[in-house]
Specification:
The chain has 160 residues and is mainly α. Helix content is 71%, strand content 0%. Helix 1 (4-23) crosses helix 2 (26-42). The termini are far apart.
Length: 160
């Protein structure tokens, strides 16, 4: 096992991206990432090597995230931060973009949990299919197929 600094240096960005894919809030993702590494270092003796270090860290991060949700008495994802708009965009354009984003996430919410998680990880966390498969304990092909099918369901929902 690596020392604490190496562990943080090697995995902090990936863990941050993973957490951000759930909470969609930069400050909260940073806090949860820090708490994840704190807990990982405290319990490093419990790591048994049955999974990759990255997967172990993501499991801790997910647990910290759920505890954060429980603290706030809710089990839903945080609202996405509004994307920065340039001054060139009109109020109408901003409204339409916000409505489209809202509709997309309403449709995402209706998908089965595995598909929803794959889409969140891919779209907001920008993880590769290989990484998504590792995080969810599946393979790359499963992640690709799940993403494709989820995308198809979303496109079908938008056209109806």
């Amino acid at each position: 096992m690596q020392d604490n600094e190496e562990l943080y240096r090697e995995y902090s960005t990936q863990v941050y991206k993973f957490v951000f894919s759930f909470c969609h809030n930069h400050l909260l993702a940073e806090e949860i990432t820090q708490e994840t590494f704190y807990r990982a270092i405290k319990s490093i003796h419990k790591y048994d090597g049955t999974c990759k270090v990255y997967v172990w860290l993501c499991q801790i991060a997910k647990h910290v995230w759920y505890q954060e949700l429980d603290k706030h008495n809710k089990r839903k994802t945080c609202e996405l931060e509004d994307p920065p708009f340039s001054n060139a965009n009109s109020t109408e354009t901003e409204f339409i973009l916000a409505q489209d984003k809202m509709e997309l996430f309403k449709q995402l919410h209706l998908l089965d949990p595995n598909t929803k998680e794959v889409l969140y990880l891919r779209l907001t966390g920008e993880f590769s299919f290989r990484e998504i498969g590792e995080i969810l304990g599946r393979d790359e092909t499963w992640a690709r197929v799940t993403f494709y099918r989820g995308k198809q369901k979303l496109m079908k929902g938008r056209s109806s």
